[in-house]
């Protein structure tokens, strides 16, 4: 087939092979450039390390925080004491730089809620300044504080609900990724299919028509 397309001369064969190699490598080169740009973008978005910031400043996962609260309550601690102990465990102390980090803010909010409850604040008022990500703990412990109900079931249900929501989000993201991969994969395979399957046939037909 190559000999037919090139006219049978060595120079024609060489030019045909070179053109085929370039066309076959084009999709790979485009995909490689896109990957390099993506890696460069991700590296530029990395947050630099701030002097004095600790690894413990990262926020504790909310399901883990709910487990800590449940463990403190099962050990016999009251709600304010459980909030205080959990706040200390997740890092309510100040870092070396003197500023409260992202993770320590959760601990500080839990300890502030505990102090407010001891001073006689109502349940919602004690949590007024807490971050929104602590809302599952706020809802799960309400019955224990206002009605004296056991909080174990509510804490467990809140943690399971968060995990279900995350799994659903992950499945949705995976489905979207599969859809987005169709176009790049098609861009890689379609030129090769056209080059190997269609171009030789069309050229052969053209040669036959011209020679006829």
TrEMBL record:
InterPro entries: T2SS_GspF_dom (IPR018076). Residues 66-198 form the Type II secretion system protein GspF domain. Keywords: Cell membrane, Membrane, Transmembrane, Transmembrane helix. It comes from the Bacteria. GO terms for cellular component: plasma membrane. Pfam families: T2SSF. The keyword Phosphoprotein does not apply. The keyword Hydrolase does not apply. It is a multi-pass membrane protein. The chain crosses the membrane at residues 12-31, 181-207. This is Type II secretion system (T2SS), protein F. It comes from Krasilnikoviella flava. The lineage of its organism: Bacteria, Bacillati, Actinomycetota, Actinomycetes, Micrococcales.
């Amino acid at each position: 087939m190559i000999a037919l397309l090139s006219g049978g001369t060595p120079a024609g064969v060489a030019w045909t092979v070179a053109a085929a190699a370039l066309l076959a490598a084009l999709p790979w080169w485009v995909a490689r450039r896109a990957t390099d740009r993506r890696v460069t973008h991700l590296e530029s978005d990395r947050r630099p390390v701030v002097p004095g910031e600790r690894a413990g400043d990262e926020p504790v996962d909310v399901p883990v925080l709910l487990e800590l609260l449940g463990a403190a309550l099962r050990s016999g601690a009251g709600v304010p004491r459980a909030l205080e102990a959990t706040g200390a465990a997740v890092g309510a102390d100040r870092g070396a730089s003197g500023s409260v980090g992202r993770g320590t803010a959760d601990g500080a909010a839990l300890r502030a809620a505990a102090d407010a409850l001891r001073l006689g604040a109502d349940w919602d008022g004690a949590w007024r300044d807490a971050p929104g990500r602590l809302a599952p703990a706020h809802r799960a412990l309400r019955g224990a504080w206002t009605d004296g109900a056991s909080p174990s079931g509510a804490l467990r249900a809140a943690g399971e609900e968060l995990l279900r929501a995350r799994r659903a989000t992950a499945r949705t993201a995976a489905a979207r990724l599969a859809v987005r991969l169709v176009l790049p994969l098609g861009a890689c395979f379609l030129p090769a299919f056209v080059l190997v399957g269609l171009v030789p046939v069309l050229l052969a037909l053209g040669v036959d028509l011209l020679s006829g």
